[in-house]
Amino acid sequence: MAIRIEHLNYIYNEGMAFEKHAVRDVSLEIPDGQFIGIIGHTGSGKSTLIQHLNGLMRGTSGTIYYNGENIYAKDYRMKDLRSRVGLVFQYPEYQLFETDVFTDVCFGPKNLGLPKEEVEARAYEALRLVGLKEKHYKKSPFELSGGQKRRAAIAGILAMKPEVLVLDEPTAGLDPRGRDDILDQIAKLHREQKITVILVSHSMEDIARYVERIIVMNHGQVMYDDTPRNVFGHYKELEQVGLAAPQVTYLMQTLHSQGWPVRTDATTVKEAADEILRVLKTVEM
Amino acid sequence: MEIIKARKLAFEYVKLDEEGRVESRSRAVDDVDLDVQAGDFIAILGHNGSGKSTLAKHINAILVPTEGTLFVDGKDTRDESKLWEIRQTAGMVFQNPDNQIIGTIVDEDVGFGPENMGVPREEIWQRVEESLKAVGMWEYRSHSPNKLSGGQKQRVAIAGVVAMRPKCIVLDEPTAMLDPNGRREVIQTVRELNRRAHVTVILITHYMEEVIQADKVFVMEQGKIVMRGTPHEVFSHVEELKAYRLDVPQVTLAAHELQKAGIPLPDGILTIEELVEELRKVRKS
Question: Suppose A267 and one of A35, A208, A234, B205 were both cysteines; which one would form an S-S bond, judging by CB atoms 3.0 to 4.6 Å apart?
Answer without folding.
Answer: A208
